[in-house]
Amino acid sequence: MLILAGQGNPGAKYAKNRHNAGFLLLDRIHAVHGFGPWRAKFDGEISEGAVDTPAGRQKVLLLKPQTFYNESGRSMSKACTFYKVGPEAVIVLHDEIDLAPGRVRMKAGGGAAGNNGVRSAIAHLGPEVRRIRVGVGHPGDKSLVMPYVLSDFSKADLTWFEPLGEAICKALPYLVAGEDERFQTEVMRLAPAPKLDPKQAGRPDTD
Questions:
Q1: Is residue 64 within 8 Å of 26, Cβ to Cβ?
Q2: Positive or negative, the Cα torsion across 176, 109, 47, 85?
Q3: Which site among 9, 46, 57, 142 is 20 to 30 Å from 2 CA-CA?
Q4: What is the pTM of this model?
Q5: CA distances for 11 relative to 17, 39, 112, 126, 131, angstroms
Q6: Given 19, 94, 124, 138, which residue is catalytic?
């Protein structure tokens, strides 16, 4: 069982925020790969399904913690306890301001780099938890980070975010099979990131 945990905040107010990139991408995976209906469990919303991989069909649980972003690790830990799996069975999918828009990087180990959701995951699961970091860019000033990530994706953002979602769905079998590097390479091949500096993404939205 692989637990693919997206990060985001619950409720319509936050649904299209940059901080909800994890939830939005899980929704795309849910639709494309034909997962079961969402239901409440583990202080979150879960959906069960399976993905065909080069190593055979494997069970996958999609998890959207409803504890709010900064406490998301608690929900992940409950899922691990129930399924009797360790942190190695969890992959956290989250927005990353220190990557340029549209860039995707896999990571295991290291610190939270100021991301409180990642900090919560590390606190509950340990420092080696695997992460899919989805670049959303930086507003250019530390004081602007919170309003930036809690703002909706702009129309300009969608020109790269929507193809990225499609690419992640197509490359998912590699991720589920444990081929993290190949997954990352395939996503970037299918949906090359726009040629932007991370801090160029922070221009005020005009739409």
A1: yes
A2: positive
A3: 9
A4: 0.92
A5: 11, 15, 25, 28, 24
A6: 19
Rounded CA gap, 104 and 91, in Å?
Answer: 14
In this structure, of 32-36, 78-82, 90-94, 114-118, the range with the lowest mean pLDDT score is 114-118
Element (H, E) at 133: strand 130-135
> What is d(CA 31, CA 207) in angstroms, rounded to the nearest whole number?
27
- For Cα atoms 141, 112, 68, give the angle at the middle one, nearest 5 degrees: 85
Distance of CA 193 to the CA centre of its chain: 16
Both tokens of 141, joined, read 């000033």
Known catalytic residue at 138: no
Sequence letter at residue 98: D
Could you state, in order of their start, the residue ranges of all structural domains in the chain?
A: 2-202
**What is the average pLDDT score of the chain?**
93
